[in-house]
Amino acid sequence: MMMCVTLCVANQRLSAAATSKTFFVIHGWTVSGLFESWKDANVIVVDWLDTAQNYYALAAQNTKMVGQEIGLFIDWLEESANVPLEKLHLLGYSLGAHIAGFAGSHATNKVGRITGLDPAGPNFEGVHAHRRLSPDDAHFVDVLHTFTRGSLGLSIGIGIEQPVGHVDIYPNGGSFQPGSLFTMTSICFLTISIFNIKICEHERSVQLFIDSLLNEGEASRAYICGSNDMFNCGMCLQCHKNRRHIVGYDASKVRKARSIKMFTKTRGSLPFRGQFENQLPKLNQLAMDPALTVSLYGTNGEAEALKLNKITANKTYSFLVVTEKDIGDLLMLKFKLKEVRAGETQKKIVLCLKDPQMGSSAQDVHTIVRLTKYF
């Protein structure tokens, strides 16, 4: 089977200098706005649209052959152009992520890094490592998962859910992305006959990586955590022992025997980095289901009426709160609890802050507040 794969080199001459990085960008990228972000780099854009524009199953099947051709080109770069493979970074979006994996595994020697941007799920979820992107394909493989939930009549997500790299990051749990809307237009990365929609949540992985280039000092941070539920409870926000890592271009190169799962919260638009984490452990003496909000006031502004989850009796809760903007150093926070009365007794429930110096309180609800800056 003959296949046409076009490789477009961003700069006029491919620099073989050991100090210059070489990037392969494999489908799904908007070319404008990328080159100026990588001023001191070689950027190679892979064009396989003629092969990709088929129904999904055939396009997925073709990824291995495209990857093999790129692998041969990588061998040529190393042997004839003296490009050091430790400086080679493959970036693949959706099906392109698996192409990057096949390219890395087919090259004679390992490339330095592969970044998978929401690797495609259908036909790849649950298969053996040699049939998809895997940690074996490069010295360091990092992955962003942004659209893993099943939808559009599929039992699995558009993006793969299982960990497939050394580091797998799940922004906002890897499913719903704030600010994303479904619109009835052609898909931006790959025109597939069974899909006729643009999936903003799938593209968010690309936008997060671009954000890390454009806002290098303000890139999002992700935290090692057992699950998204644990992260949402504020249980994993430790910065010590390499538990916090930068999302995107400057991701820490962590290599362990098994994949490390990380989670983060983002805003709905550029820059995506969230600003505050708020933990509110609660000691409750009465059952209640209040409408509870918190407002944060800082030196640069405020974030008001941020909703918290409902509270039930005799449990400890933590809430993760992310603001849309950086409010600076925290000056004050306010809690608002809509008046609640018990159904049978009509006894009023009151929210107060427990003062350790006062000892036990006569109030019905005690709240201990711990606020931590979220980076």
Structural summary, described in words:
Helix 2 (56-80) packs across helix 3. This protein is 16% helix and 27% strand. With 375 residues, it is of the alpha/beta class. Mean pLDDT is 74; it is low at 28-33, 182-198, 276-288 and 352-375. The chain has 2 domains: 6-264, Rossmann fold; 276-373, Lipoxygenase-1 (Sandwich). Residues 272-375 form the PLAT domain. GO terms for molecular function: apolipoprotein binding; heparin binding; lipoprotein lipase activity.
Can I get a quick summary?
One of its GO terms (biological process) is very-low-density lipoprotein particle remodeling. With 375 residues, the chain is α/β, with parallel strands linked by helices.
Q: Helices and strands in order, then pairings?
A:
Blueprint lengths: L5 E4 L11 E6 L14 E7 L1 H4 L3 H25 L7 E6 L1 H12 L4 E7 L20 E7 L22 E5 L10 E2 L14 E2 H15 L6 E4 L3 H5 L11 E3 L13 E5 L11 E4 L2 E3 L7 E7 L2 E7 L22 E8 L2 E2 L6 E2 L1 E3 L11 E3 L2 E4 L2
Parallel strand pairs: 2-3, 2-4, 4-5, 5-6, 6-7, 7-12, 20-21
Antiparallel strand pairs: 1-3, 8-9, 10-11, 10-12, 13-22, 14-21, 15-16, 15-17, 18-19
Helix pairs in contact: 2-3
